[in-house]
Amino acid sequence: MNNDLIVAIISALGGATITGFFSFLSQKNTNKKDIEIMEREAIMSDQQALRREMREEIRLMKEEILKWKEINLRLEEELLEWKEKYILLEAEYAQAKNKIAYLEQRVEGLSKDA
Questions:
Q1: DSSP reduced 3-state for 1
Q2: Rg of the chain (C-alpha set)
Q3: pLDDT tens by residue, 19-47
Q4: CA 98 remoteness from chain centre
Q5: What single DSSP character describes residue 29?
């Protein structure tokens, strides 16, 4: 019975050790999976936050673009107005120059006659 008792004790200890080892591995894998799931969820949360920030940034940039388009349109209109004024002033200048030349010729003609 001594041998049988020793074999039974060894078998019980061996079985308990093997069962404990597999339980440990199983728990370790479960913990590892839980950690991986939590890491994936954290990454997904970070990605969602980044996407929200990027959408907000894009919205602000679109608003800025619209503002600058309006400014550009207003400046183009002002430029057209100034071009029209310049053309009118150029015509007035040419008329004034012609009038001066005509008056100078008359003055010279009158000076010669006098």
A1: coil
A2: 48
A3: 776 676 677 667 667 777 788 888 898 89
A4: 59
A5: H
